[in-house]
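Hi everyone,

Forwarding the result from last night's run.
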Amino acid sequence: MRSAQMNSAQKTESAVTFFRAGEFQRAKEICEAILADKPRHTQARHLLAIIAFELGKPDEGIAHFETLAAISPDHPGVHADLAKALASAGRTDEAIAAFRMALSIVPEDVSLLNNLGSLLAGQGELSEAVSSFEAAVEANDRLPVSHYNLAKALKDSGDPQRAIQHYKRSLELDPGFATAWRNLGNLYVDVGEIDLAAEAYEKGVRIKWSPEAKKRPTRAI
């Protein structure tokens, strides 16, 4: 029994090696051979799902993620992977349901809350998006992206004053967030605070063209 387990482990490692080398078809064949013997082998199926997307077969990849969710229904990461796969394929309603399933297991996961909020906002479900971003902020008040996301949703839902507060909080945590400065400037214009808008724009432009800006990661939303 131990020998068979080691053999599966070695095959999985080999598949990963081929995958990293860009030899997707060879990696796929190895994973399929593993699953022929052990249909519930999660590592092989997870890699098959990723390979399917690399080969331009999203429906096939989603099917593998759905099988993984059925095999490990209490694993939040599996539902999150399924949600991201569904979202990338434009199946937004199903992606939202999968993110909610993941959150039913880990309700304070900030990444899941932000991802869910982003999808809801994209669907025009602004009240629910605001609630999701508020939960993210409540779970961890020190992540600038959560305040940024909440500010954007509040602005779009017609609450500029609260949006300003969360843009400001985002910038307290990350003063080099150029997009947040620009959005804050736009909000100040909307509420008639022209001097404050000019100050925010100036800071955003100065940061955007600074040498350090090129080294900063790009934020979503």
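The chain has twelve helices and no strands.

Cheers,
N.
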